[in-house]
Structure formats: structure tokens, C-alpha cells
Design a protein that fits this description.
It contains five helices and four strands.
């Protein structure tokens, strides 16, 4: 499953993902949100894949909070990291399709309400 895109849009801005091989060596981090350049820099060469992917989600959360104007939360690394872990876990574990029949019941229930 490929979780780190080449680019994405958020609030009308295109954010480019830049892969930099020396980010860990030079800045002691796996990822970096670069607001003035509309980028997320990520080093995909120094850490295991899951840590690199989680670091991407960490920088994504920084971007979301930046666009929302939530500077206190954006600068709270504990909050950002925790939120990113939840997003990453969701992405890694989501499943599609009917697993226990519940999805069909919910859809039929909604359709019944609309007809009444």
C-alpha cells in the first residue's frame, strides 16, 4: 500500500512532497513541513517504511492545522504526533467491503427512512 503521495491539495493549495535523502543527517528529522514553499520534505532513506509513513502523516497534520490557523496546536508536537498516529493507524488498517452484514443493514435502514 502506497501512503506517501507525490502531491495533494488542502484548502485549495497544492502541496508537493519532496524526497530528500539527507534530511535526517542534516536536520535530524524524517519530515518537515515547509509552509512558504507549499511542501512536505520527507527522507525515505534512513528509517523503516512505517516510521517514514507515520512521519508523513505528522507533517500532514502540521499542514492541516496551519491552514486552519490553529498555531497553538500546530506547534504542540505531542498533539500533532498523537493525531498523526491515529490518522496513520486508520490508513494502515481500514478495510472495505462487507465484513459482518452491518453495512447492508445500515444502508437499507437509511433507504427506508427516506421513503417514509
Amino acid at each position: 500500500m502506497k501512503l506517501i503521495p507525490n502531491k495533494f491539495k488542502i484548502a485549495g493549495l497544492t502541496i508537493d512532497i519532496v524526497r530528500e535523502d539527507n534530511l535526517v543527517k542534516d536536520k535530524k528529522c524524517i519530515g518537515e513541513a515547509r509552509y512558504s514553499k507549499q511542501q512536505i520534505a520527507i527522507d525515505t532513506t534512513q528509517a523503516p517504511v512505517e516510521l517514514t509513513e507515520q512521519s508523513f502523516y505528522h507533517e500532514l497534520v502540521h499542514w492541516i492545522l496551519y491552514v486552519m490557523g490553529e498555531d497553538d496546536k500546530r506547534n504542540n508536537e505531542q498533539f500533532v504526533d498523537c493525531f498523526a498516529h491515529f490518522l496513520y493507524q486508520y490508513e494502515k488498517t481500514k478495510q472495505f467491503g462487507e465484513t459482518d452484514g452491518m453495512e447492508t443493514e445500515k444502508i437499507q435502514h437509511k433507504e427506508t427512512k427516506k421513503r417514509v
